[in-house]
Amino acid sequence: MNFQSDNQSTIFPEIIEYLNDINNNSAPAYGADEITLLAKDMLVELFETDLKVMYVSSGTAANSIALSAISPPYGGILCSDNAHIGGDECGAPEFFTGGSKLVPLPSKDGLMLESEILKYLDNHGLHGIHEILPSAISITQASELGTVYSQNHLKSISDIAKKHSLYTHMDGARFANACCFLKCKPADITWKSGIDILSLGTTKNGTMSCEAIVIFNKDIQADFERRQKRAGHLWSKNRYMAAQIVKWIENDRWKNAANKANDYAKNIKNIFNSNKKILIEYPVDINMVFAKIPPNIQEILIKHNVLFNPWYGNDNLTRFVTSWDTKFSDIKNLEEIINNL
């Protein structure tokens, strides 16, 4: 029973089959092939707008290259105090931007607060050029704590950004899960909510290794190929990256997978709620459950080969993550263990 991370999940079999199918012939390099063009058309249809897309192999690369396009070396990038770009990317955003400073702001349940953003911006400028220049806001959707920004919340933050001449970036490592929770279209929580650039995560939701930088704002599209090349992420055989997107989107495979993972996380939440000694720490919006579990119960779970991760913060805090390939039998086995405590 593995509930450690959706990064450990398997790949859609349709992707494996498709990669094998397209491997019979050569094709133009660097994105000039038919499959890359098809994937672009499918993304345009999915997001209901014209866009530019670049494929990279990791979320860290997607976030860092995206941020390099919207924040200068002397810029500041506002983010939540538990954002992935701040705590789990080894300084890559600062490196790729040439020195931009991440500005972590207090959040609630992982979500940025308009009041904290305004407090920072309203108190900025006293020292003139001696200060960093606020240049971007990076929003993690869904958050690192498994919570989701509503469309109104996103629009409110992007309105603040535009009023202060800042760009908005979205780290969408679990974007599909957020869409499914909100029961909305991808357009609703991206460009329609004022997002300029999106790191679209697919690896946690069925692909092998494919993160897409989706650029909605035409003002920041011009030199993106050079940023991708300079970062070492310009794929010569790009068709193998794009092929993953084709099968990810096809037949709403991305949505079905994310819905399943979300539903199984709700099942785990309900199982834990049946035991008064286990406390759910944050709202369970997507496929992650954060729960305070007493050490003796954690030991019992471990003895029954239940895999999960301890988490930062309060004592005994744990994280359980479901995936598109989580087995229903694992959910039932977990329920039996908890019921027999």
Overall pLDDT confidence:
96
Architecture per CATH nomenclature, i.e. the level-2 architecture of the largest domain: 3-Layer(aba) Sandwich
Contiguous low-pLDDT stretches (5 residues minimum) are: none
Largest sheet: 7 strands, mixed
Number of domains: 2
What topology, given as strand order, has the largest sheet?
A: 1-9-8-7-6-2-3
Backbone structural class: alpha/beta
Distance between the termini: 17 Å
Order of helices and strands: HHEHEHHEEEHEHEHEEHHHEEHEEH
The best one-word shape is: globular
H/I helix tally: 13
Q: Provide the β-strand percentage band.
A: 15-25%
Report the C-alpha radius of gyration, rounded.
Answer: 21 Å
What is the name of the CATH topology of the largest domain?
A: Aspartate Aminotransferase, domain 2
Relative helix content: 25-40%
CATH structural class of the largest domain: Alpha Beta
List the helices and strands and how they pair.
Blueprint: H1 13-21, H2 34-47, E1 52-56, H3 59-68, E2 75-80, H4 84-87, H5 92-97, E3 101-105, E4 107-108, E5 111-112, H6 114-122, E6 133-140, H7 151-163, E7 167-172, H8 175-182, E8 197-201, E9 211-215, H9 224-230, H10 239-249, H11 253-273, E10 279-280, E11 288-292, H12 295-303, E12 309-310, E13 317-321, H13 328-339
Parallel strand pairs: 2-3, 2-6, 6-7, 7-8
Antiparallel strand pairs: 1-9, 4-5, 8-9, 10-11, 11-13, 12-13
Helix pairs in contact: 1-10, 2-10, 8-11, 11-13
